[in-house]
Write a structure and sequence with these properties.
mainly alpha, three-stranded antiparallel sheet, 9 helices, 3 strands, elongated
Length: 179
Amino acid sequence: LMLRRLNQRRRALSDLRAAEKLEPSEHRIVVTRALVLSDQGKHTEALSTIDPVIDAHPKDAESLHARAVIQFRRQRFDEAEDDLDEAMRLRKSFEAAYLLRGQILEKRRQYKRARDQYERALATSAKSVEQLYAQKTARARIRALDRRSGPTVVSSSTSSDCRRFIPAANMTIAIKCKK
């Protein structure tokens, strides 16, 4: 994963192939390989790599999300959303899925709905590096949307608190909702 983040895709693919030989039953290695192929612009090959994984593990939210990422990069937003719907049904708090759905909505110029998805990504308690990265990106997308229309208060539909983005602090805080 680190080689992928550092844009060292050839080395990442080489390491992933070696890992597959050591752990052929570990499907997450194949999922990561598919994402690296997509990073290289090889979307068709990435899909043909990930589809058998999803066929074998249809309830794996991360695999569905990865295929959604590949579909998003191909500008196939409907297919990406179908996979996101299923991934989010399987895993309720899925920061990266909320982030990707927000990006799809932005591409469709549905900015208010996109912002809501970014806020939902921030409403979870992130623990892993991937979750924290998704939240960092969600904050950046909210800032970009705020530059378009100015900051807003967004009410959370899943809890009784509201959230407010504070541009100067570059963060979102929970506030009491006015009823």
